[in-house]
């Protein structure tokens, strides 16, 4: 069979020369470090390597401590474009770094399989079965998804992630509220603006004051992304505020929910905020207790963005 060779033990192995070897980025300065890691090897990596080495696992050819770009991955299978990472306690405080590293590897067209060191030591059969299933899938589709010539670097992925985050230098507070309701208009004009702009030294932004040509949803996304905090005013079942609050929370932005106490006390479900927001940061307000309510809101904002307020 062209491109295959049979070893003495009967295992059929695909020749590496026959495979279109991926031109993956490679940092030669990491060679010594990779060699040291191969010698050191923690227990879980050694146990898994004993199952993978010399193509004894389904005939797949694995490398150990393989250099890809500026990283050294635990195991790599060229045939499948598969990276295996064994996560131990050293990864406990590196979730964001690991996520960016994985995005970089996936950006090269590779598949990343993460497994805990505990699973390797306690459930090796389960780990190998998952690898077997992944191998069957990747062997069919991997070479059909060879990455494009242009790829993001690790620094590029970092920049992408930063762009998704809240602007660190922003002092803008986005207010999501229903328009034309006398009590909420009074709240905005006579209380929130004074608290946000004057007392806290921030800038209150409401979309109707910054309307430009374009699709409203896109303008809304843009203004929320420029903000450091979102206030979601839920009085009279303001459905639109749920979308704006969800978008902000997806960016990792603090969100504070507001609603008139009378609306919260109402037995009419059509005007009450959804019960899920009870589990969020919520500040009720009332016309009769508005000064105390604004004090509570001020304290809540100071806790949410202490480095932004004056």
* Distinct helical segment count: 11
| Strand residues, percent | 15-25%
Output the structural class.
alpha/beta
Regarding quaternary structure, what we see is: single chain
Q: How many distinct beta strands? A: 11
User: Using only CA atoms, what is the Rg?
Assistant: 28 Å
User: In total, how many domains does the architecture comprise?
Assistant: 2
The CATH topology annotation of the largest domain reads as: Endonuclease, Chain A
Q: Using the 3D structure, state the CATH architecture of the largest domain.
A: 3-Layer(aba) Sandwich
Give the low-confidence spans: 1-7, 10-21, 144-148
Mind telling me the CATH class of the largest domain?
Answer: Alpha Beta
**Strand arrangement in the largest pleated sheet:** 8-7-9-10-11
Largest sheet: 5 strands, parallel
How far is the first residue's CA from the last residue's CA? 75 Å
Order of helices and strands: EEHHEEEHEHHHEHEHEHEHEH
Name the average pLDDT: 83
Helix content: 40-55%
Fold blueprint:
Elements (H helix, E strand, L loop, with lengths): L3 E3 L5 E3 L16 H10 L2 H10 L9 E7 L2 E7 L4 E6 L7 H13 L3 E6 H6 L1 H18 L12 H11 L7 E5 L5 H18 L3 E3 L10 H10 L3 E5 L6 H11 L4 E6 H5 L16 E4 L4 H15 L6
Parallel strand pairs: 5-6, 7-8, 7-9, 9-10, 10-11
Antiparallel strand pairs: 1-2, 3-4, 4-5
Helix pairs in contact: 3-6
């Amino acid at each position: 069979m062209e491109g295959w060779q049979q070893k003495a033990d009967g295992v059929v192995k695909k020749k590496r020369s026959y495979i279109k070897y991926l031109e993956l980025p490679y940092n030669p300065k990491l060679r010594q470090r990779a060699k040291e890691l191969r010698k050191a090897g923690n227990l879980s990596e050694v146990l898994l390597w004993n199952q993978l080495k010399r193509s004894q696992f389904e005939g797949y050819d694995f490398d150990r401590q393989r250099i890809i770009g500026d990283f050294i991955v635990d195991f790599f299978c060229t045939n499948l474009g598969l990276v295996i990472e064994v996560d131990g306690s050293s990864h406990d405080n590196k979730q964001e770094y690991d996520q960016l590293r994985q995005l970089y590897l996936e950006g090269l067209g590779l598949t990343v399989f993460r497994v805990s060191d505990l699973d390797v030591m306690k459930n090796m059969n389960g780990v190998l079965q998952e690898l077997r299933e992944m191998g069957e899938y990747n062997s069919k589709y991997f070479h059909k998804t060879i990455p494009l010539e242009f790829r993001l670097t690790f620094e590029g992925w970092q920049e992408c992630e930063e762009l998704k985050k809240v602007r660190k230098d922003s002092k803008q507070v986005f207010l999501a509220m229903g328009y034309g309701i006398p009590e909420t208009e009074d709240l905005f004009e006579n209380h929130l603006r004074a608290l946000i702009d004057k007392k806290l030294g921030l800038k209150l932004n409401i979309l109707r004051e910054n309307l430009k040509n374009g699709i409203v949803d896109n303008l809304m996304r843009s203004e929320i992304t420029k903000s450091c905090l979102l206030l979601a005013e839920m009085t009279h079942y303001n459905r639109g505020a749920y979308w704006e609050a969800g978008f902000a929370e997806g960016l990792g932005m603090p969100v504070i929910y507001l609603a008139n106490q009378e609306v919260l006390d109402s037995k009419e479900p059509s005007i009450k905020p959804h019960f899920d927001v009870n589990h969020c940061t919520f500040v009720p307000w009332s016309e009769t207790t508005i000064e105390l309510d604004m004090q509570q809101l001020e304290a809540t904002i100071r806790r949410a963005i202490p480095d932004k307020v004056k």
